[in-house]
Amino acid sequence: MSIRKLALAMGFAAAAAFATVSAEAQTELTFGHVGEPGSLFEASANHFAEVANAKLAGTGYSVATYGSSQLGKDSELLSKLKLGTVDFALPSSVMSSVAPEFGVFEMPYLVKDREHMKRIEAEVFWPQIAPAAEAQGFKVLAIWENGFRHITNNVRPITVPDDLKGIKLRTPKGEWRVKMFQSYGANPTPMAFSEVFVALQTGVIDGQENPFAQITSAKFQEVQKYLSLTGHVYTPAYITVGMNKFSSLPENVQALLSEAAKETQAFVYETAANLEVELLQVLKDGGMAVNDADKDAFVKASAGIYEEFATQVPGGKEMVDKALSLAN
Which residue positions does the secretion signal occupy (predicted)? Predict the structure, then answer.
């Protein structure tokens, strides 16, 4: 082979090697969540990815989002975080199955509004609840939102707890939501979010409870008659990573991702507040019969859940008392 041909061959080989190295150097960090197109979860995850990728430019890392349970349901995503096969997830109520302390956010009518939630985050979540998640191998980077939850069903309007008697109601997989609806007289059925539409459509369950953003993005208005504005629970969402996998990333990448997660909260809260107004109208326009609920009656019927949480969860009473004291 001539020197010229050898040089050309070496040049091509070097270029190919460089391309391979460059491709290998760009590492995709996967973000799985259960939100459907148009949901608050989708908007939150996509905004985070945009902010994070701008910060990560030149680091060799990027974030890609996968919604609609593409990478698994909530419980599967938590398992994948620990295994390191998914990098980020956005669990909500399911976190009470990870550490009992998260159950404080299952207490009905605990959180009054987002400003109240910010105070709870600062004085209850980060000091007491986040460490409980880390003890189980999970790190929460920031608090986002799932939202204020309302009941839909095909049997009757829900005005007081007694109206729930005998209704088969889907709940997330968290023990306190199940106990709460049992105490109201409903027949709660824990079920993955991705399975709910068909279960409602076929009559396997009568109803479900979720924030407006989840109801509309999943098109539950197509298979539900009644929307009752109970606002019974405010559920945060937690942008969560597996401790081992996250710790293996370069420290500057960890810092940039943490910054992006916290910065995204303002976008999430603003978007959520706007959606509460817009999406209620969408549900009304979709033909749902909307009614107000007697929240005082629900609060009164919830006393037993507070008592049980206080006795069963170490530090439960102190967390609840602290959260309630921050309301004003």
Answer: 1-25
The bridge status of strand 226-229 relative to strand 150-153 is antiparallel
Q: Which of 289, 154, 277, 159 is nearest to 208 (CA)?
A: 154
Instruction: Tell me how far apart the alpha carbons of residues 69 and 34 are, in angstroms, rounded to a whole number.
Output: 4
**Straight-line distance from the first to the last Cα atom of the chain, in angstroms, rounded to the nearest whole number:** 83
Task: Give the per-residue SS3 of 265-277.
Answer: HHHHHHHHHHHHH
**What is the per-residue pLDDT across 74-119, written as a single tens digit (0 to 9) for each?**
999 999 999 999 999 999 999 999 999 999 999 999 999 999 999 9
Q: How many CB atoms lie within 10 A of CB 42?
A: 20
How many CB atoms within 10 Å of residue 22? 10
Integer CA distances (angstroms), 185 to 1, 302, 303, in order? 86, 12, 14
> Which residue is associated with the tokens 């309302």?
150
What amino acid occupies position 156? R
C-beta separation of 151 from 268 below 8 A: no
Structural domains of the chain in order of their starting residue, each with its CATH number: 26-325 (3.40.190.170)
**Dihedral sign, CA of 211, 212, 216, 219?**
positive
How far apart CA 290 and CA 114 sit, in angstroms, is 24
Q: Model confidence over 130-182: pLDDT tens digits?
A: 999 999 999 999 999 999 999 999 999 999 999 999 999 999 988 899 999 99
The span from the CA of 284 to the CA of 229, in Å, is: 12
Choose among 96, 77, 90, 41: nearest CA to 309: 96
Q: State the Cα–Cα distance between residues 65 and 304, nearest whole angstrom.
A: 40
